């Protein structure tokens, strides 16, 4: 559903698919893709990424998969414990390789 967004239980965060916050969130090990509430949307995105190699090959943004999830989900709001996710370490690939936050290319970081 277009216009879907992620928020934390207290509403302190509102993360849409159009900002760079979604890339920052997706870089953290604490984001469990298997725990996303709309399993139909998650499976649709998994199929898209698995069946069309050009989709994942063109992805340098950490949040691209999650952006696709927000596009396909039937839920207007996905509630995640954003604070806890951001408190976990950055995934290996983002600590090691250059990648993008939105349109900006950034160096590896912790």
What is the tally of beta strands?
5
Structural class: alpha+beta
The averaged pLDDT comes out at 89
Provide the succession of SSEs: EEHHHHEHHEE
Radius of gyration over all CA atoms, rounded:
13 Å
User: What distance lies between the first and last C-alpha atoms, to the nearest angstrom?
Assistant: 32 Å
Low-confidence stretches: none
Helix content: 25-40%
Strand coverage percent: 5-15%
In a nutshell, what does this entry contain?
This protein is an alpha+beta fold. The chain is built from 6 helices and 5 strands; from the N terminus they run E-E-H-H-H-H-E-H-H-E-E.
Keywords:
110 residues, alpha+beta, three-stranded mixed sheet, two-stranded antiparallel ribbon, globular
Provide an overview of this structure.
The structure is a single chain. With 110 residues, the protein is α+β, with helices and mostly antiparallel strands. Helices cover 39% and strands 13% of the residues. The protein has helices spanning 21-26, 39-51, 53-57, 64-72, 82-86, 92-96; strands at 5-7, 14-15, 77-79, 99-101, 104-106. The strands form 2 sheets. It has a 3-stranded mixed β-sheet, with no helix packed on it. Helix 2 crosses helix 4 (64-72). The mean pLDDT is 89.
What's the SSE blueprint?
Elements: E1 5-7, E2 14-15, H1 21-26, H2 39-51, H3 53-57, H4 64-72, E3 77-79, H5 82-86, H6 92-96, E4 99-101, E5 104-106
Parallel strand pairs: 1-3
Antiparallel strand pairs: 1-2, 4-5
Helix pairs in contact: 2-4
């Amino acid at each position: 559903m277009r216009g879907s967004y992620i928020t934390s239980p207290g509403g302190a965060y509102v993360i849409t698919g159009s900002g760079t916050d979604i890339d920052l969130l997706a870089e953290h090990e604490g984001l469990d893709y298997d725990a996303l509430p709309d399993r139909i949307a998650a499976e649709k995105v998994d199929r898209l990424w698995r069946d069309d190699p050009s989709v994942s090959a063109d992805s340098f943004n950490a949040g691209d998969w999650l952006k696709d999830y927000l596009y396909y989900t039937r839920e207007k709001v996905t509630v995640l414990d954003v604070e806890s996710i951001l408190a976990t370490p950055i995934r290996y690939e983002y600590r090691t390789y250059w990648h993008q936050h939105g349109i900006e290319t950034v160096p590896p970081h912790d």
